[in-house]
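Sample 1 of the test manifest.
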Amino acid sequence: MESDNLRGAAGGRPGGTAAAMPADRLSMRTKRLLWVWGFLAIPVLFYTVIRFYPTFQAFYLSMTNWDLVRPAKFVGFANYVKLFKDPQFWKVFRNTFTYLIIGTPLSLLIAFTVAFFLDRVRFMHNFIRALYFLPYLTTAAAMAWVWRWFYQPPPIGVINDVLALIGIPQQPFIRSTDQALFSIMVTAIWAGLGFQVIIFMAGLRAIPTTFYEAARIDGLGEWAILRKITLPLLKPTTVFLVVFSSIAFLRIFDQVYNMTTNDPGGPLGSTKPLVLMIYQTAFGSYAMGYAAAQTVVLFTILLIVSLLQLWILREKK
Amino acid sequence: MRKSVLLAGLVAGFSTFAFNAAQAVEIEYWQYVFDTRVKAMDQLIADFQTKNPDITVKQVTFPYADYQTRVIAANMAGNGPDVMQLFYGWLDKFVAGGILQPLPTDAFPHEKIEKDFFPIVSAMKRDDNYYGLPTAVRSLAVFYNKKLFTEAGLDPNKPPQTLDEFVAAAEKIAKHDAAGNVTVAGSTLDMTGQDHQWWREVLIRQFGGEPYTDNDTKVAYNSEAGVQALKFYTSLQTEKKVGAVGFMDEGQAAFRAGKAGMTIDGTFRLGAFSTIKDFEWGVTELPANKDGLRSNYASYFANGIGAKTTGEELEASKKFLTYLTSPEAMAIWLKVVGELPALRSAALTDANLKDPIYGPFLKGLDYAHTTMFKDELGQRQNAIDMVNRVLLEGQSPEDSLKQAAEAEQEMIDAAKP
């Protein structure tokens, strides 16, 4: 049926008799492949031009001293040498990995817990689920500003007001070099939570109930069911979320930038992630070559982390 | 028959259209998006076009964050603006990139520029060429809340004139809760606002030093004066407790909310503060030191002509730039944007000097300095970090200053072409 349609469409092209002659000699399979690739060519071309070409261009740029106004000069690995000697880079590197190493497991743990229990709640289930999902729909910039005001010192910060009410000393939050990064991380976790909960719940629903019934008949406890059935069967979902949220944390920008606009990545660079450093190098100092080198480093980190996670969490056969 | 008449009419219509198009020169003017600036420019263009019916000016705007990139990219593509606005601090980069052409001396003779404009226009001069001229300039002053002054028993018509009076007034206004948190600031402390300029060009000089030497290419503030200036600034929070960095998020927000007695800010803040309804505020010059020495930081956006503009577009651009730097254009800009005229004759009128709001800013222009930033964002960040190291990490002002001076020197050296 499908192939009939395809042949009909191909043969029905106006003035296509001459061209259709050799095409008629092609097998059905080849013809179908031609069609598929014909359509795929558009996105492939699109991606080549706007994704792959700039990516390779960035590798080249990272070896130049291009500053946007003067012609680029090839400088070899000078940008990389400069980068690895820069204490600011190592600080930013540490910040980025703090976001990743604490942010990802913490957000997944919370998301799984919420999904696990929400899955059993029948009362206003959809409404509660919507509430969890709502932050994910909100613009990161707007959200960051609301949180920025929450974190303010007295007399206007809501969180500090609450702390004062219950007799806990006031905290500087985003005005402190120790607390600022975690204060921002909390908002990022909160913002991404809804998405992770939804995905986890879809994963939970996909596990056949017969498995649970069989386990209960065999007399397995809740904890054992969780460990032996739920978690192993949830693995594809978990792998997806680990990779997805790791990339998100490695690329964190909106929250940090909007919560610290006047002193971006501050105080004293304590919240600055790699992406913000790239942005500042490129569009603040206009050191495009140096920024490209940082981009290549970020690309490499993303690649290694993602491959590593896929390898660790791979299906063991 | 009717058809041919119609055809003839059409042809005639097209040819007059084409004729007009050939007559009117269109030039492009670029600036960044800022509501009042765009509105003022619309007015200026309309006025200019009625005076020069053979020239059309098309205004093109971009968000501030993209502006420089757009100008540079358009220049590379060969379709940049004919006349453009640029911050004085971008000049080195724009000249190096071949984006601007020197102002033609027939329309803008040097003697006239140097005689008529405030001396800070020298920041637009490189190798005996001027590359742009401002319509308006901005300087700093102290905004003060008259209501809080009265409540603290201070005379709202006698704002502080010296640093000692400034501190004394701030101490009287400041209020704290039981835990020691500031609830009303005597004066705002916000290095991310204008305080870094105050420290750099005003306080260092008032404590007997100099921020830079050799055309602002050698950092000179790592001195006793620099330390004293930094200590004065940080002690406002640590010892005198008249304010706290981050109080109400931003200095200008605290002042707007009526929670700060004084704040140091620029002419560009007048628009935002003009909508304050809850209290009356006044403006006074930045405080002098014990010897009566005053200083100020002035900055401006200038208008320059694109390097690739030639022929009749160049003639039209010259006319437009002449109009933009005329007293009448400056009067419109002052009214709409609130920025001060860049021509002495247009700025220092009796009416302006007596104006309780423009007066203090204008007086400041006479003794103002303009920092020749090499990496504006980097140098600003460096000053912010210097104060944060003292306030957040407890580093001594001496060490923090030394570190800042070294880092800034490195930045300036790296920016050399």
